[in-house]
Protein backbone atom coordinates (compact mmCIF):
# COMPACT_ATOMS: atom_id res chain seq x y z
CA UNK A 1 0.00 0.00 0.00
CA UNK A 2 1.27 3.47 -0.88
CA UNK A 3 2.16 5.56 2.16
CA UNK A 4 -0.26 8.44 2.64
CA UNK A 5 0.90 11.15 5.04
CA UNK A 6 -1.52 12.91 7.33
CA UNK A 7 -2.69 16.29 6.03
CA UNK A 8 -5.14 17.26 8.79
CA UNK A 9 -4.60 18.15 12.42
CA UNK A 10 -7.09 18.56 15.23
CA UNK A 11 -6.99 20.57 18.44
CA UNK A 12 -9.01 19.35 21.41
CA UNK A 13 -8.89 21.11 24.77
CA UNK A 14 -11.14 21.66 27.75
CA UNK A 15 -13.96 23.83 26.36
CA UNK A 16 -14.08 26.30 29.27
CA UNK A 17 -11.13 27.62 31.27
CA UNK A 18 -11.82 29.95 34.19
CA UNK A 19 -8.53 31.48 35.28
CA UNK A 20 -7.31 33.92 37.91
CA UNK A 21 -7.00 34.66 41.60
CA UNK A 22 -10.41 34.00 43.12
CA UNK A 23 -11.63 31.89 40.18
CA UNK A 24 -12.78 29.19 42.60
CA UNK A 25 -15.48 31.56 43.84
CA UNK A 26 -17.25 30.96 40.52
CA UNK A 27 -17.54 27.19 41.03
CA UNK A 28 -21.10 27.48 42.33
CA UNK A 29 -22.14 29.47 39.26
CA UNK A 30 -20.41 26.93 37.01
CA UNK A 31 -22.35 24.16 38.72
CA UNK A 32 -25.54 26.10 38.15
CA UNK A 33 -24.80 26.21 34.42
CA UNK A 34 -24.93 22.40 34.44
CA UNK A 35 -28.20 22.36 36.39
CA UNK A 36 -26.45 20.88 39.41
CA UNK A 37 -28.49 19.74 42.39
CA UNK A 38 -25.76 17.59 43.91
CA UNK A 39 -22.01 17.25 43.45
CA UNK A 40 -19.29 14.74 44.22
CA UNK A 41 -15.97 16.33 45.16
CA UNK A 42 -13.03 13.98 44.52
CA UNK A 43 -9.82 14.81 46.36
CA UNK A 44 -7.12 13.54 48.74
CA UNK A 45 -6.77 13.65 52.55
CA UNK A 46 -3.96 16.21 52.44
CA UNK A 47 -6.15 18.87 50.87
CA UNK A 48 -8.88 18.17 53.40
CA UNK A 49 -6.38 18.62 56.25
CA UNK A 50 -5.00 21.80 54.66
CA UNK A 51 -8.48 23.34 54.63
CA UNK A 52 -8.54 23.77 50.86
CA UNK A 53 -11.59 21.55 50.43
CA UNK A 54 -13.47 23.71 52.92
CA UNK A 55 -12.71 26.70 50.68
CA UNK A 56 -13.96 24.80 47.65
CA UNK A 57 -17.14 23.44 49.18
CA UNK A 58 -18.02 26.85 50.60
CA UNK A 59 -18.58 27.97 47.01
CA UNK A 60 -21.09 25.18 46.25
CA UNK A 61 -23.23 25.32 49.41
CA UNK A 62 -26.29 26.16 47.28
CA UNK A 63 -26.57 22.47 46.43
CA UNK A 64 -25.83 19.18 48.12
CA UNK A 65 -22.34 17.78 47.93
CA UNK A 66 -20.37 14.73 49.06
CA UNK A 67 -16.59 14.68 49.52
CA UNK A 68 -14.67 11.57 48.51
CA UNK A 69 -11.15 12.00 49.92
CA UNK A 70 -9.73 8.54 49.24
CA UNK A 71 -7.37 9.51 46.43
CA UNK A 72 -3.72 8.56 46.88
CA UNK A 73 -0.63 9.23 44.73
CA UNK A 74 -0.51 7.02 41.62
CA UNK A 75 -3.99 5.71 42.45
CA UNK A 76 -4.55 1.99 42.11
CA UNK A 77 -7.57 0.62 40.31
CA UNK A 78 -9.23 0.03 43.70
CA UNK A 79 -9.26 3.77 44.39
CA UNK A 80 -11.10 4.36 41.12
CA UNK A 81 -13.56 1.61 41.94
CA UNK A 82 -14.30 3.03 45.39
CA UNK A 83 -14.89 6.51 43.97
CA UNK A 84 -17.26 5.05 41.37
CA UNK A 85 -19.16 3.23 44.11
CA UNK A 86 -19.51 6.54 45.94
CA UNK A 87 -20.81 8.21 42.79
CA UNK A 88 -23.32 5.43 42.23
CA UNK A 89 -24.52 5.85 45.81
CA UNK A 90 -25.02 9.63 45.71
CA UNK A 91 -25.94 10.00 41.99
CA UNK A 92 -24.32 13.43 41.49
CA UNK A 93 -25.12 15.88 38.71
CA UNK A 94 -21.53 17.20 38.80
CA UNK A 95 -18.12 15.69 39.58
CA UNK A 96 -15.41 18.07 40.82
CA UNK A 97 -11.80 16.88 40.92
CA UNK A 98 -9.64 18.97 43.26
CA UNK A 99 -5.91 18.37 43.61
CA UNK A 100 -3.07 17.09 41.47
CA UNK A 101 -3.26 14.75 38.52
CA UNK A 102 -4.30 11.79 40.67
CA UNK A 103 -7.46 13.45 42.00
CA UNK A 104 -8.41 14.83 38.61
CA UNK A 105 -7.83 11.45 36.94
CA UNK A 106 -10.04 9.65 39.46
CA UNK A 107 -12.73 12.29 38.96
CA UNK A 108 -12.65 12.00 35.17
CA UNK A 109 -12.90 8.21 35.07
CA UNK A 110 -15.53 8.23 37.81
CA UNK A 111 -17.58 10.56 35.62
CA UNK A 112 -17.71 8.24 32.61
CA UNK A 113 -17.91 4.86 34.38
CA UNK A 114 -20.65 6.02 36.77
CA UNK A 115 -22.60 7.32 33.78
CA UNK A 116 -22.18 4.34 31.45
CA UNK A 117 -21.54 1.41 33.79
CA UNK A 118 -19.09 -1.44 33.54
CA UNK A 119 -15.75 -1.91 35.26
CA UNK A 120 -12.73 0.39 35.06
CA UNK A 121 -10.67 -2.21 33.19
CA UNK A 122 -13.39 -2.56 30.57
CA UNK A 123 -12.14 0.73 29.12
CA UNK A 124 -8.40 -0.05 29.35
CA UNK A 125 -6.69 -1.25 26.18
CA UNK A 126 -5.85 -4.95 25.71
CA UNK A 127 -4.19 -7.10 26.82
CA UNK A 128 -4.78 -5.69 30.33
CA UNK A 129 -8.33 -4.52 29.71
CA UNK A 130 -11.22 -5.20 27.38
CA UNK A 131 -10.53 -2.19 25.17
CA UNK A 132 -14.12 -1.00 25.05
CA UNK A 133 -14.55 2.62 23.91
CA UNK A 134 -16.18 5.07 26.28
CA UNK A 135 -19.62 5.32 24.64
CA UNK A 136 -20.36 8.98 25.29
CA UNK A 137 -20.08 11.93 27.66
CA UNK A 138 -20.02 11.28 31.37
CA UNK A 139 -21.36 13.27 34.28
CA UNK A 140 -20.32 16.93 33.80
CA UNK A 141 -16.87 17.37 35.31
CA UNK A 142 -14.91 20.33 36.64
CA UNK A 143 -11.15 20.02 37.23
CA UNK A 144 -9.54 22.24 39.87
CA UNK A 145 -5.75 21.78 39.86
CA UNK A 146 -3.86 22.68 43.03
CA UNK A 147 -0.49 21.82 41.48
CA UNK A 148 1.09 23.11 38.28
CA UNK A 149 2.32 20.03 36.51
CA UNK A 150 0.16 17.25 35.14
CA UNK A 151 -2.10 19.11 32.73
CA UNK A 152 -4.84 16.65 33.71
CA UNK A 153 -7.34 19.50 33.63
CA UNK A 154 -7.24 19.40 29.82
CA UNK A 155 -6.27 15.79 29.19
CA UNK A 156 -8.45 12.95 27.84
CA UNK A 157 -6.19 10.38 29.53
CA UNK A 158 -6.23 8.91 33.03
CA UNK A 159 -3.46 6.78 34.55
CA UNK A 160 -4.32 3.74 36.67
CA UNK A 161 -1.82 1.74 38.75
CA UNK A 162 -1.98 -2.03 38.98
CA UNK A 163 0.48 -2.54 41.87
CA UNK A 164 0.25 -6.32 41.93
CA UNK A 165 1.49 -6.38 38.34
CA UNK A 166 3.99 -3.50 38.64
CA UNK A 167 2.07 -1.87 35.82
CA UNK A 168 0.48 1.43 34.95
CA UNK A 169 -2.29 1.49 32.38
CA UNK A 170 -4.58 4.17 31.07
CA UNK A 171 -7.94 5.07 29.66
CA UNK A 172 -7.90 7.49 26.75
CA UNK A 173 -11.12 9.06 25.53
CA UNK A 174 -12.13 12.54 24.53
CA UNK A 175 -15.16 12.02 26.79
CA UNK A 176 -12.81 12.12 29.78
CA UNK A 177 -11.68 15.65 29.04
CA UNK A 178 -13.20 17.92 31.74
CA UNK A 179 -15.99 20.28 30.78
CA UNK A 180 -14.42 23.13 32.75
CA UNK A 181 -11.02 23.82 34.28
CA UNK A 182 -10.81 26.29 37.17
CA UNK A 183 -7.27 27.67 37.51
CA UNK A 184 -6.96 29.61 40.77
CA UNK A 185 -3.33 30.19 41.82
CA UNK A 186 -4.41 30.98 45.38
CA UNK A 187 -5.21 27.28 45.83
CA UNK A 188 -1.58 26.34 45.14
CA UNK A 189 0.26 28.62 47.58
CA UNK A 190 0.39 25.97 50.32
CA UNK A 191 2.04 23.38 48.05
CA UNK A 192 5.48 22.64 49.58
CA UNK A 193 8.70 23.35 47.65
CA UNK A 194 9.37 19.69 46.78
CA UNK A 195 6.07 18.98 45.02
CA UNK A 196 6.16 22.46 43.46
CA UNK A 197 9.55 21.63 41.94
CA UNK A 198 8.70 18.12 40.74
CA UNK A 199 5.32 19.05 39.27
CA UNK A 200 6.88 22.07 37.57
CA UNK A 201 9.55 19.92 35.93
CA UNK A 202 6.82 17.57 34.74
CA UNK A 203 5.01 20.50 33.12
CA UNK A 204 8.25 21.67 31.50
CA UNK A 205 8.82 18.21 30.05
CA UNK A 206 5.30 18.20 28.61
CA UNK A 207 6.04 21.43 26.79
CA UNK A 208 9.50 20.41 25.56
CA UNK A 209 8.44 16.98 24.35
CA UNK A 210 5.37 18.43 22.63
CA UNK A 211 7.55 21.02 20.89
CA UNK A 212 10.00 18.49 19.46
CA UNK A 213 7.63 15.58 18.78
CA UNK A 214 6.98 14.51 15.22
CA UNK A 215 4.78 16.88 13.21
CA UNK A 216 1.29 15.82 12.24
CA UNK A 217 2.23 15.55 8.54
CA UNK A 218 5.06 13.12 9.27
CA UNK A 219 2.59 10.48 10.40
CA UNK A 220 0.35 8.17 8.37
CA UNK A 221 -3.14 9.39 7.56
CA UNK A 222 -5.98 7.44 9.20
CA UNK A 223 -8.60 5.83 7.02
CA UNK A 224 -11.30 7.59 9.02
CA UNK A 225 -11.38 10.63 11.29
CA UNK A 226 -12.37 8.45 14.23
CA UNK A 227 -9.07 6.56 13.91
CA UNK A 228 -6.90 9.66 14.32
CA UNK A 229 -4.97 9.21 17.58
CA UNK A 230 -5.27 11.66 20.46
CA UNK A 231 -1.54 12.29 20.09
CA UNK A 232 -1.77 13.36 16.44
CA UNK A 233 1.55 15.25 16.11
CA UNK A 234 2.65 18.80 16.65
CA UNK A 235 0.93 21.59 14.76
CA UNK A 236 1.35 25.37 14.54
CA UNK A 237 -1.09 25.80 17.44
CA UNK A 238 0.52 23.22 19.75
CA UNK A 239 3.84 24.93 19.01
CA UNK A 240 2.40 28.23 20.29
CA UNK A 241 1.15 26.60 23.48
CA UNK A 242 4.42 24.72 24.03
CA UNK A 243 6.73 27.70 23.53
CA UNK A 244 4.66 29.90 25.82
CA UNK A 245 4.65 27.16 28.46
CA UNK A 246 8.44 26.71 28.31
CA UNK A 247 8.92 30.44 28.79
CA UNK A 248 6.44 30.77 31.65
CA UNK A 249 7.81 27.75 33.52
CA UNK A 250 11.45 28.63 32.90
CA UNK A 251 10.87 32.17 34.18
CA UNK A 252 8.77 31.30 37.24
CA UNK A 253 9.50 27.83 38.65
CA UNK A 254 12.43 28.98 40.78
CA UNK A 255 10.34 31.81 42.24
CA UNK A 256 7.39 29.52 42.97
CA UNK A 257 9.70 27.08 44.80
CA UNK A 258 11.55 29.79 46.71
CA UNK A 259 8.40 31.61 47.83
CA UNK A 260 5.16 29.69 47.57
CA UNK A 261 3.13 32.81 48.33
CA UNK A 262 4.40 34.59 45.22
CA UNK A 263 1.05 34.73 43.44
CA UNK A 264 2.57 36.08 40.22
CA UNK A 265 4.82 33.02 39.99
CA UNK A 266 2.02 30.66 40.97
CA UNK A 267 -0.31 32.19 38.36
CA UNK A 268 2.27 31.86 35.60
CA UNK A 269 3.09 28.28 36.60
CA UNK A 270 -0.57 27.26 36.61
CA UNK A 271 -1.15 28.82 33.21
CA UNK A 272 2.11 27.37 31.88
CA UNK A 273 1.07 23.92 33.07
CA UNK A 274 -2.30 24.24 31.35
CA UNK A 275 -0.67 25.38 28.10
CA UNK A 276 1.81 22.50 28.27
CA UNK A 277 -1.13 20.16 28.82
CA UNK A 278 -2.97 21.58 25.81
CA UNK A 279 0.18 21.08 23.74
CA UNK A 280 1.10 17.53 24.69
CA UNK A 281 -2.43 16.09 24.82
CA UNK A 282 -2.71 16.97 21.13
CA UNK A 283 0.86 16.73 19.84
CA UNK A 284 2.15 13.82 21.91
CA UNK A 285 5.13 13.08 24.12
CA UNK A 286 8.26 10.94 23.77
CA UNK A 287 10.92 8.81 25.41
CA UNK A 288 11.14 10.86 28.63
CA UNK A 289 7.62 9.88 29.62
CA UNK A 290 8.06 6.28 28.51
CA UNK A 291 11.05 5.95 30.86
CA UNK A 292 9.28 7.73 33.71
CA UNK A 293 6.11 5.67 33.37
CA UNK A 294 8.12 2.44 33.38
CA UNK A 295 10.21 3.55 36.36
CA UNK A 296 7.11 4.56 38.28
CA UNK A 297 5.47 1.20 37.68
CA UNK A 298 8.53 -0.91 38.55
CA UNK A 299 10.34 1.17 41.17
CA UNK A 300 7.49 3.43 42.34
CA UNK A 301 9.61 6.53 41.77
CA UNK A 302 7.97 9.97 42.00
CA UNK A 303 6.92 10.93 38.49
CA UNK A 304 8.08 14.55 38.32
CA UNK A 305 11.47 13.82 39.87
CA UNK A 306 12.00 10.89 37.49
CA UNK A 307 11.08 13.14 34.58
CA UNK A 308 13.59 15.78 35.71
CA UNK A 309 16.40 13.21 35.78
CA UNK A 310 15.52 11.58 32.45
CA UNK A 311 14.71 14.64 30.32
CA UNK A 312 18.26 15.97 29.68
CA UNK A 313 19.50 12.53 28.61
CA UNK A 314 16.58 12.17 26.20
CA UNK A 315 17.22 15.65 24.81
CA UNK A 316 20.83 14.70 24.10
CA UNK A 317 19.74 11.53 22.33
CA UNK A 318 17.12 13.35 20.25
CA UNK A 319 19.32 16.30 19.35
CA UNK A 320 20.26 15.02 15.89
CA UNK A 321 16.59 15.02 14.87
CA UNK A 322 15.60 18.37 16.38
CA UNK A 323 18.67 20.65 16.40
CA UNK A 324 16.79 23.83 15.54
CA UNK A 325 14.04 23.26 18.07
CA UNK A 326 16.44 22.53 20.91
CA UNK A 327 18.37 25.70 20.04
CA UNK A 328 15.10 27.64 20.37
CA UNK A 329 14.43 25.97 23.71
CA UNK A 330 17.88 26.96 24.95
CA UNK A 331 17.19 30.60 24.04
CA UNK A 332 13.76 30.53 25.69
CA UNK A 333 15.37 29.20 28.87
CA UNK A 334 17.85 32.09 28.88
CA UNK A 335 20.88 30.59 27.17
CA UNK A 336 22.89 32.65 24.66
CA UNK A 337 23.41 30.44 21.62
CA UNK A 338 24.93 33.09 19.34
CA UNK A 339 28.06 31.73 17.73
CA UNK A 340 27.39 28.18 18.88
CA UNK A 341 27.26 25.17 16.59
CA UNK A 342 24.05 23.20 16.34
CA UNK A 343 25.53 20.53 18.62
CA UNK A 344 26.53 23.15 21.18
CA UNK A 345 23.10 24.83 21.02
CA UNK A 346 21.32 21.54 21.65
CA UNK A 347 23.65 20.79 24.53
CA UNK A 348 22.91 24.25 25.95
CA UNK A 349 19.22 23.33 26.09
CA UNK A 350 19.93 20.10 27.99
CA UNK A 351 22.24 21.95 30.40
CA UNK A 352 19.60 24.64 30.98
CA UNK A 353 17.09 21.96 32.00
CA UNK A 354 19.66 20.34 34.31
CA UNK A 355 20.43 23.69 35.91
CA UNK A 356 16.76 24.53 36.44
CA UNK A 357 16.18 21.15 38.07
CA UNK A 358 19.24 21.56 40.32
CA UNK A 359 18.18 25.09 41.29
CA UNK A 360 14.85 23.76 42.56
CA UNK A 361 16.48 20.91 44.46
CA UNK A 362 16.38 18.00 42.01
CA UNK A 363 19.77 16.54 41.18
CA UNK A 364 21.73 13.31 41.46
CA UNK A 365 20.31 11.42 38.49
CA UNK A 366 18.12 8.33 38.44
CA UNK A 367 20.57 6.64 40.80
CA UNK A 368 19.34 9.02 43.51
CA UNK A 369 15.98 7.24 43.18
CA UNK A 370 17.51 3.83 43.78
CA UNK A 371 17.79 2.81 40.13
CA UNK A 372 21.08 1.07 39.46
CA UNK A 373 22.97 -0.44 36.57
CA UNK A 374 21.36 -3.82 37.15
CA UNK A 375 17.91 -2.29 36.66
CA UNK A 376 18.61 -0.70 33.28
CA UNK A 377 17.77 -3.62 30.96
CA UNK A 378 14.41 -4.36 32.58
CA UNK A 379 13.49 -0.69 32.73
CA UNK A 380 14.36 -0.21 29.05
CA UNK A 381 12.35 -3.28 28.08
CA UNK A 382 9.26 -1.96 29.87
CA UNK A 383 9.69 1.56 28.45
CA UNK A 384 10.03 0.11 24.95
CA UNK A 385 6.54 -1.38 25.29
CA UNK A 386 4.94 2.07 25.63
CA UNK A 387 4.42 2.54 21.92
CA UNK A 388 1.79 5.27 22.32
CA UNK A 389 4.44 7.49 23.90
CA UNK A 390 7.41 6.47 21.76
CA UNK A 391 5.49 6.93 18.50
CA UNK A 392 6.03 10.67 18.71
CA UNK A 393 9.71 10.64 19.67
CA UNK A 394 11.50 12.75 17.04
CA UNK A 395 14.30 10.20 16.61
CA UNK A 396 13.80 6.51 15.93
CA UNK A 397 14.31 4.58 19.15
CA UNK A 398 14.55 0.97 20.29
CA UNK A 399 15.34 -0.93 23.47
CA UNK A 400 19.11 -0.59 23.07
CA UNK A 401 18.75 3.17 22.63
CA UNK A 402 16.60 3.34 25.74
CA UNK A 403 19.24 1.43 27.70
CA UNK A 404 21.87 3.95 26.64
CA UNK A 405 19.64 6.89 27.59
CA UNK A 406 18.87 5.43 31.01
CA UNK A 407 22.56 4.78 31.69
CA UNK A 408 23.30 8.38 30.75
CA UNK A 409 20.59 9.52 33.18
CA UNK A 410 21.88 7.48 36.15
Tally of domains: 2
* Low-pLDDT windows of residues: none
Which fold name corresponds to the CATH topology of the largest domain? Answer: Dehydroquinate synthase-like, alpha domain
Largest sheet: 6 strands, parallel
Instruction: Please tally the β strands and state the result.
Output: 8
Report the span from N to C terminus: 43 Å
Rg calc: 20 Å
CATH class of the largest domain equals Mainly Alpha
Named at the architecture level, the CATH assignment of the largest domain is Up-down Bundle
Strand content: 5-15%
The CATH homologous superfamily of the largest domain corresponds to Dehydroquinate synthase-like - alpha domain
What's the rounded overall pLDDT mean?
A: 95
Strand order of the largest sheet: 1-8-5-4-2-3
3D shape: globular
Query: Helix share of residues?
Result: 40-55%
Based on secondary structure, the structural category is alpha/beta
Q: N-to-C SSE series?
A: EHEHHEHEHEEEEHHHHHHHHHH
| SS summary, helix count | 15
Provide key terms for this protein.
single chain; 410 residues; alpha/beta; Rossmann fold; Dehydroquinate synthase-like, alpha domain; 2 domains; six-stranded parallel β-sheet; two-stranded antiparallel ribbon; 15 helices; 8 strands; 47% helix; 10% strand; globular
Amino acid sequence: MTYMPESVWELNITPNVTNGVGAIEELGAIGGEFGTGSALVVTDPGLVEAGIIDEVTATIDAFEYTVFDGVEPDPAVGVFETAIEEANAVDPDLVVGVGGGSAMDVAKTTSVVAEHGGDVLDYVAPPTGAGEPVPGPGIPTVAVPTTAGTGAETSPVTVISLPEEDLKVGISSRYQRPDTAVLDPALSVSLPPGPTASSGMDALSHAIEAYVTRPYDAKPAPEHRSERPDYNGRSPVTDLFAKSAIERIGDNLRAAVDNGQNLDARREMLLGSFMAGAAFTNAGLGATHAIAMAAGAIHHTPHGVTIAHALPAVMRYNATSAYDRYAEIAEILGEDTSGLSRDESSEAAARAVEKLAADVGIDGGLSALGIGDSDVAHLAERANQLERLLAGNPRRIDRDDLEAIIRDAL
